[in-house]
Amino acid sequence: MQQSAHLSQPAQLPLFEAFLAQPVLPGLKSREQSRKPGQPELFSELSLRGAPGHCQSLLAPILRELSEEDDARWLTLIAPPASLTQTWLRDAGLNRERILLLQPGSNQSALQLACEALRLGHSHTVVSWFGNVNASIRQQLVRAATCGNAQSLNIRLG
User: Fold this and answer.
1) Which of 47, 63, 105, 136 is the most buried (most CB within 10 A)?
2) Which residue(s) pair with 100 in the sheet?
3) Domain boundaries, the chain
């Protein structure tokens, strides 16, 4: 009896529920050495590995918090994974009236689109799903974020 009750519970996810109930964005800050005191971080990265459903469960509160920012600008998602549908956004409780979903065109890469969205300044945060971000890509994103007074968040799903 005791064993079957244990099997019906989702594996490990409840361990994160108390943590995720707290504001999680301050924990996402990178440690950029050239940053001046009091200046906001311009680039952050989050790496999630595991079952897609669990990764989405961990990602939901982060995106929900970003979609509820006091900043009147957009939360922009650049080329999100196919699993992040309008239905998923709604079910995850995100404020869809404050989110832009953008896909790169045939003559524009996701990186170019992310840089343009950052540079224009119409978004408080631009979320991308690049694989590994090398120094050159990071520098491009930081420069664009500086121009637009925005933040770049890259999410790596494993």
Assistant:
1) 63
2) 76
3) 41-157
User: In angstroms, how far is CA 87 from the centroid of its own chain?
Assistant: 18
Rounded to two decimals, the pTM is 0.76
CA distances from 77 to 38, 71, 118, 126, 146 (A): 26, 16, 11, 6, 18
pLDDT digits (tens, 9 = 90+) for 35-56: 455 556 899 999 999 888 889 9
For 41-157, CATH gives: 3.40.50.300
Q: By 3-state DSSP, what share of the chain in percent is helix, strand and coil, each rounded to 5? A: 45, 20, 40
- Calpha distance 83→100 (Å, rounded): 16
User: Half-sphere exposure of 106 toward its Cβ, with a 13 Å CA cutoff?
Assistant: 0
